[in-house]
Amino acid sequence: MKVLIVFAHPEPESLNAALRDVAIASLQEAGHEVQVSDLYAMNWKPSVDRADFPALDPGERLKVGAASHAGFVQGALTADVKAEQEKLRWADMLILQFPLWWYTMPAILKGWVDRVYAYGFAYGVGEHSDRYWGERFGEGTMAGKRAMLIVTAGGWAEHYSERGVNGPIDDLLFPINHGILYYPGYTVLPPFVGYRIDRFNDARFAQMAEALRERMRSIDTTAPIAYRQQNGGDYVIPTLELKPDREEAGTRGFALHLTPAG
Amino acid sequence: MKVLIVFAHPEPESLNAALRDVAIASLQEAGHEVQVSDLYAMNWKPSVDRADFPALDPGERLKVGAASHAGFVQGALTADVKAEQEKLRWADMLILQFPLWWYTMPAILKGWVDRVYAYGFAYGVGEHSDRYWGERFGEGTMAGKRAMLIVTAGGWAEHYSERGVNGPIDDLLFPINHGILYYPGYTVLPPFVGYRIDRFNDARFAQMAEALRERMRSIDTTAPIAYRQQNGGDYVIPTLELKPDREEAGTRGFALHLTPAG
């Protein structure tokens, strides 16, 4: 497969960078082709602003969705954004790698999403009406491609467990896995999460690196997170609420959007 | 009260800007003092990098937490970060206002959190050991102050409802309300959320503005979200897991961290 790793850490000698290199080597050994967007090294511009839409009339009010759509269909987005979109088209698999800062991705990576995910490319795809709400959540530009997160956290696994004070890691990552990866059509693999990364020694690094290698070796066979398709019949259109009795009794919150096992 | 509004929208003529002005006017009419950090107008730097830590030796590897701590205790963070921390000390209440982009805040506001929330200021406060895990989640530098979100979304309220495809809005905002506002000690009020903001007319704006005015008039009396205190006896130390049987039967996920009503 062709794999794009979008990497967001400011320090080239960081644990994150070392894990990235483990992932790259492991993917290449397995015969995959790898490209990396190292956002800090690229000096990636994080904030969406007027400069992102060179075709927008200077006197016109900036409406981000409309400007993004016009720029996308006219081929008039900026060169850095178009280059990233090209990499996404090229890749069969997308990996986002980042340290968990304040329970989500660093600003520079959020800014990659905000800017690269143009209207017409990652959202606003397909008919939007009261009868059909677009190709998204399992359909869209990225349908058929795979994606996953590689995340590091300072806290303990227990702090992110089902009853941990931070909230369960799967729920904290839902807005990214479901809202950013599944939304434009990616098939989403379970995340790789490394905990307690501020207290590392060689033995623990070796252990984490081996676990990551194992995940990289199996990217084409790992079973994905079983999110429901928006247009698969489970949701009422246009309110997009899950139809009654589609879930196991007692299921609540984000877990409603998983297809029940068996 | 003294109120700081941190505002993140690139367009001065946007609906968000109009709502911000409604909030300011309403707060001032009620006798509150208001400061605004308009992040786009300030050209806020979003990405944490070496330049944030001028005291860091150029040959030294950047460890963000350690560099942030050293910079904070030595008074050696950058002037823009110190100015924001000063505003946070000044304010009795913090309001973060932003459009929901990809289910969370825009990159520029995430970058405000990543940079202003220094180690020793917003985290790493108090003893950290196997017996005590810091002053956070209800305690810390911001204890006694209030905070809330003002958020706009393009989708329908139903899409963000209990069974909506996006996930419930309270769960989507939990990493911000609990993980960014409650973490350093703020008492967190329920968010103000405006839906379908891409399909606006004067009548709907008037209605939303009036609802926002009502919220602004009652900032000192609105009942907060009843998050549990980390050090209030509900959690096992140091795994920080909620003790058994502290919740109503059937409660799952983020809702575990709310004190049961009555």
UniProtKB/TrEMBL annotation, chains A, B:
<protein>
    <submittedName>
        <fullName>NAD(P)H dehydrogenase (Quinone)</fullName>
    </submittedName>
</protein>
<dbReference type="Pfam" id="PF02525">
    <property type="entry name" value="Flavodoxin_2"/>
</dbReference>
<dbReference type="InterPro" id="IPR003680">
    <property type="entry name" value="Flavodoxin_fold"/>
</dbReference>
<dbReference type="InterPro" id="IPR029039">
    <property type="entry name" value="Flavoprotein-like_sf"/>
</dbReference>
<dbReference type="InterPro" id="IPR051545">
    <property type="entry name" value="NAD(P)H_dehydrogenase_qn"/>
</dbReference>
<keyword id="KW-0560">Oxidoreductase</keyword>
<feature type="domain" description="Flavodoxin-like fold">
    <location>
        <begin position="1"/>
        <end position="214"/>
    </location>
</feature>
<comment type="similarity">
    <text>Belongs to the NAD(P)H dehydrogenase (quinone) family.</text>
</comment>
